[in-house]
């Protein structure tokens, strides 16, 4: 069986959108039960309560989770408040402990997804399980690793799969903790529309302010739901305090989400007209870019003849300043325009470099 053949009917057991929520980390039995109690009383429509039992951290000597004892607290949450439970597993021992504690949903974290050896170990430990298993995107923007992790699980007979889009690490500082890089996630969805994908706005944003917007944006492009970190007292959380929200805020966020209809048959004619227009504009863009690269070829020839270095920092400065100015004038995102011009400039350098080498 291949990934594209999976039915993933397990997701039909849950409401839409599928919201998984709870604290970043299990800290104590009272913290877990109090958070679950407030989520229940807030009428936040969540079927699955999450908590990190083992917490892989970037640096040592920090809080790395309470360990196996936290699984008992998850059991009490299920018994007292009726939620299904979910936690992250990062090695075979985690898997065995979570399965023994009858945790309902498991996920593989971004740091684990990036390592095929780790994923294989987890997959073998999960062999044949019927429990849903989510795979977070790897920390680096590598679609093949994400897909490969799914294939390793499927190879061990794990057929109830889901994907979690939690953003990608970047050296550059942006408004996000992990940049969404939506295109990679959408490429995954395009290849495997049968695999439910949920967004993790908590790890994308790294703060509370952008959670609602990122969650809605994901639903707008057809995601199944979201995993959101919630703590009864976020400021006192032992890990990732700044990105957790209270159960009351969680309930408000969920109540304001808009579910988008995937059936566009009612507006086929109008949609077709707009898509035809976009296709025409795209063709013009490609033609213009082709003309630009031909000019770059001529510039490359001149640089070669005069022994001039390809990359000119002053020229790149002019390009970025011009892009920023035009973005402001047109009301477009300056970040988007800069990305476009950076891609064009990089391709121009490649074109000129090929001339330097081959001619």
Task: Write the SSE topology.
Blueprint: E1 18-22, H1 29-41, E2 48-50, H2 69-81, E3 84-88, H3 92-100, E4 105-108, H4 110-113, H5 116-125, E5 133-136, H6 143-155, E6 161-165, H7 182-191, E7 197-199, H8 201-205, H9 211-220, E8 225-229, H10 247-255, H11 268-305, H12 313-330, H13 334-358
Parallel strand pairs: 1-2, 1-8, 2-3, 3-4, 4-5, 5-6, 6-7, 7-8
GO molecular function: chorismate mutase activity; transferase activity
Domain Chorismate mutase: 265-356
Keywords: Transferase
Could you describe the 3D structure shown?
This protein is α/β, with parallel strands linked by helices. The protein folds into 2 domains: 3-255, Aldolase class I (TIM Barrel); 266-358, Chorismate mutase (Chorismate Mutase Domain, subunit A), CATH 1.20.59.10. Helices cover 49% and strands 9% of the residues. The protein has helices at 29-41, 69-81, 92-100, 110-113, 116-125, 143-155, 182-191, 201-205, 211-220, 247-255, 268-305, 313-330, 334-358; strands at residues 18-22, 48-50, 84-88, 105-108, 133-136, 161-165, 197-199, 225-229. It has an 8-stranded parallel β-barrel with strand order 1-2-3-4-5-6-7-8, surrounded by 5 helices. Strand 5, helix 6 (143-155) and strand 6 form a beta-alpha-beta unit. The longest helix is centred in the last third of the chain and has 38 residues, at 268-305. It is elongated, with a radius of gyration of 24 Å. 34% of the residues are buried. The mean pLDDT is 91.
Mean pLDDT: 91
Number of DSSP-assigned strands: 8
Helix content: 40-55%
Q: Main β-sheet: number of strands, strand sense, barrel status?
A: 8 strands, parallel, barrel
Low-confidence stretches: none
Shape: elongated
Q: Quick one: CATH class of the largest domain? A: Alpha Beta
CATH superfamily of the largest domain: Aldolase class I
Strand order of the largest sheet: 1-2-3-4-5-6-7-8
Secondary-structure element sequence? EHEHEHEHHEHEHEHHEHHHH
Termini separation comes to: 50 Å
């Amino acid at each position: 069986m291949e990934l594209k053949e999976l039915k993933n009917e397990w997701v039909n057991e849950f409401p839409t959108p599928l919201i998984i929520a709870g604290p970043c980390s299990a800290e104590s039995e009272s913290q877990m039960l109090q958070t679950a109690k407030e989520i229940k009383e807030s009428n936040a429509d969540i079927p699955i309560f999450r908590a990190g039992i083992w917490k892989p951290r970037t640096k040592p000597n920090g809080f790395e989770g309470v360990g196996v004892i936290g699984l008992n607290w998850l059991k009490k949450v299920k018994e007292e408040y009726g939620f299904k439970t979910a936690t992250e597993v990062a090695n075979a021992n985690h898997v065995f402990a979570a399965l023994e504690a009858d945790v309902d949903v498991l996920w593989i974290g971004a740091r684990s997804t990036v390592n095929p050896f780790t994923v294989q170990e987890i997959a073998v430990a999960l062999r044949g399980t019927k429990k849903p298993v989510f795979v977070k995107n790897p920390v680096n923007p590598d679609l093949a690793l994400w897909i490969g992790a799914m294939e390793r699980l499927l190879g061990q007979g794990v057929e109830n799969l889901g994907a979690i889009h939690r953003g990608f690490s970047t050296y550059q500082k942006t408004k996000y903790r992990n940049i969404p890089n939506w295109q990679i996630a959408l490429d995954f969805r395009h290849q495997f529309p049968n695999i439910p994908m949920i967004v993790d706005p908590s790890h994308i944003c790294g703060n509370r302010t952008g959670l609602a917007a990122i969650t809605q944006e994901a639903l707008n492009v057809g995601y199944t739901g979201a995993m959101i970190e919630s703590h009864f007292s976020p400021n006192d959380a032992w890990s990732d305090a700044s990105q957790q929200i209270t159960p009351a805020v969680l309930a408000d966020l969920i109540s304001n989400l808009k579910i988008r209809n995937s059936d566009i048959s009612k507006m086929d004619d109008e949609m077709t007209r707009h898509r035809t227009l976009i296709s025409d504009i795209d063709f013009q863009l490609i033609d213009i870019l082709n003309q630009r690269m031909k000019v770059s070829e001529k510039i490359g020839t001149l640089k070669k003849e005069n022994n001039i270095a390809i990359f000119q920092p002053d020229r790149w400065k002019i390009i970025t300043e011009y892009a920023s100015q035009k973005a402001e004038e047109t009301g477009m995102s300056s970040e988007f325009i800069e990305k476009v011009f950076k891609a064009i400039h990089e391709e121009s350098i490649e074109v000129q470099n090929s001339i330097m080498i081959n001619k």
